[in-house]
Design goal:
The chain is α/β, with parallel strands linked by helices. The protein has a domain at about 45-155: Glutaredoxin, CATH 3.40.30.10. It is built from five helices and seven strands; from the N terminus they run αβββαβαβαββα. The chain has helices at about 5-20, 60-75, 90-100, 110-115, 145-150, and strands at about 30, 35-40, 50-55, 80-85, 105, 125-130, 135-140. A five-stranded mixed β-sheet has the order 5-4-3-6-7. α2 packs across α5. About 30% of the residues are buried.
Length: about 160
């Protein structure tokens, strides 16, 4: 039996199950790699995007630059990356920097998993509305355009050039 077709089938079934399984919305309090705390309650009135990724996940690596670009253009939207393969902290931080991940980075551990749950597959993006309720929680790569549409974010106007 060939393993590649079986692997593809398992990944497809995992993605299908992920879209069917409900997620429970809950408050969170996370600490990023810079020591800053991120509490969902502190972001009331703002959209919050959590993006779960791993260093070995190709679609994750592909979407990080787009998420970073979105975050730079939409500072009112809170964007937090959650690295699920955080056994080697230095490696994950270096990898994040290399891929353009310049928004807050949380390294998953038992405490993070207890608050957020385990992502069913990667990449997974969870979006909280301004009231703090999850309205999007899906597996799959996201784009800056999708995030703009999902959050209703408008691009920041460019600063006028100084004469």
């Amino acid at each position: 039996m060939k393993t590649k077709p079986l692997l593809h089938l398992l990944l497809a079934l995992s993605a299908l199950a992920a879209t069917l399984a409900p997620v429970t919305a809950s408050a969170f309090e996370l600490t990023d790699t810079q020591g800053r705390r991120h509490k969902l309650a502190d972001y009331k009135g703002r959209y919050v995007v959590l993006n779960f990724w791993a260093t070995w996940c190709v679609p994750c690596i592909q979407e990080i630059p787009e998420i970073a670009a979105f975050q730079k253009e939409h500072p009112r939207v809170v964007v937090i990356g959650v690295a699920v393969d955080a056994e080697n902290v230095a490696k994950v931080k270096q990898f994040a920097h290399k891929t353009g991940h310049d928004y807050p980075l949380v390294l998953s551990d038992e405490s993070v998993e207890k608050q957020l749950g385990d992502p069913r597959a990667l990449p997974t993006t969870r979006i909280y509305d301004p009231a703090g309720k999850v309205f999007y929680d899906r597996v799959g790569r996201v784009t800056a355009k999708f995030l703009e549409e999902a959050t209703g974010a408008k691009k920041s106007a460019p600063s006028p050039a100084k004469a």
